[in-house]
Amino acid sequence: MRLLALLCAIVGLSACGGSSNAGPPTSTGGKTDVRRSQAAAVAPAPRAKLTARQLAGQHVIFPFSGRTPPPALLARIRRGEAAGVLFLGGNLGTPAQVRALTRALRRVPRPAGLRAPLLLMVDQEGGSVKRLPGAPRRSAPQMAATGSPSVAHAEGRATARTLRAAGMNVDLAPVVDVVRPESALHSEGRGFGFSASAAGRFGTAFAAGLGEGRVAAAAKHFPGFGAAVANTDNGAVRIPVDRDTLQRVDRRPFVAARRAHVPMVMLASAIYPALSPKPAVLSRAIVQGQLRRAVGFRGVTISDDLAAPAFAAHGGAAGAGVQAARAGVDLLLYAGTYEDADGAADALEAAIRARRVDRAALEQGVGRTLALRARLR
What we know:
The chain is α/β, with parallel strands linked by helices. Helix content is about 45%, strand content about 10%. The chain has helices spanning about 1-20, 50-55, 70-80, 95-105, 140-145, 150-165, 185-190, 195-210, 245-250, 250-260, 285-295, 315-325, 340-355, 360-375; strands at about 60, 85, 120, 125, 130, 170, 215-220, 265, 300-305, 330-335. The strands form 2 sheets. It has an 8-stranded parallel beta sheet. The protein has a two-stranded antiparallel ribbon with strand order 4-5.
């Protein structure tokens, strides 16, 4: 019995040693497998002790106006107080100008432990939502109309080449919502169709193509925005879909995304009365209960634009940021002004210092994000 116990102990130690010495996911054909980044969910907190200001900033995605980053943003990056940058139409000039801009951001020196690539992201869905010239050549409905997910996969790979050529590494796509005929998404020409099966198959194929090109995909908008008749960019939106339909229909493409190891999921800004009285992105019941536990998603969570009018009743950009972080959202996205994001980072820092948010949970979120960033070199 003593011998058996000794052998079991040796086997157990060997397993622990193998796990602790494991490196990052291996590459296939020289390309990092971004899809494996789901493992980041169990990543430890950052090794270096972050200041409250760094911990807050590492949760924020900053926008800016024009084609020159403001000195304040560059200073934040230099101090390790920014997770990434969102590029909008006003930031983008000629291909050469875009490459020079992203190169300048990537070259800003950062503190030890926070030197993984910045998340440089853009909305590149195709169709009506496309910031850069190039791929995808088709909109999501056009991809689905071919009947072949391999077309979406090829478009995803081509889109990754477009983004990488511009120096970017995150595409805020695909839309995997189950579109309804009367919805805003349908009128905007977004989404892969009216069935959960089509949304899941074509969305995950597009995401896989992005991942093979070392660009992280973000499936959106959980728990499903396909029944919304208005856009949250314009005001508060309530989606009166019953709980059973949300779970049986709208959740399915996100389960498919989790199974396909899509590394990021974007939370919707709409209110789902069947699930929570708060906007989804501010609701712990939705972020933790529905997405983390029910779907089993372990990757990086990101908000939709927290500077949108939908959050006026929730403390504006800064108040919404603190609430989203408290709900468990890893990345707080701002598509308004740099000042919106800067104020939100300051508000989150104040909440950390006052212990109004769980510091350990925030550190775990930064760990997930840094693990993903490390795979995007």
